[in-house]
Design a protein that fits this description.
The chain is built from five helices and no strands. Helix content is 44%, strand content 0%. By secondary structure, the chain is mainly α. It has one domain. Pfam families: Viral_alk_exo. Keywords: Endonuclease, Exonuclease, Hydrolase, Nuclease.
Length: 88
């Protein structure tokens, strides 16, 4: 977090960082209370802008399932599906 962001967070009663403040990548960890708070605040999916913000550029269960069952992963294609890569 930058100094400006940290200062703004001190006055914010919300325990959650904004989605863009959580780094992307393998090994990123969030504590249980934060995960539960994000889950509660992102209910309603298609009607909830926070749901879209938290899922942007992340590999979700539905994306992982589609990729793991693709022709490329199963050896029936030499090219990964572009639409799946775009989703990630």
């Amino acid at each position: 977090m930058s100094a400006n962001t940290a200062g703004a967070r001190e006055n914010d009663p919300s325990p959650l960082p904004r989605p863009e403040e959580v780094p992307l990548g393998v090994g990123v960890q969030m504590d249980r209370l934060m995960v539960e708070a994000v889950e509660q605040q992102t209910r309603g999916q298609s009607e909830n802008p926070l749901w879209f913000a938290w899922h942007r550029n992340r590999i979700t269960a539905s994306i992982a399932h589609r990729v793991s069952h693709s022709r490329f992963v199963n050896g029936r294609s030499d090219t990964p599906p572009a639409s799946y890569l775009t989703a990630i």
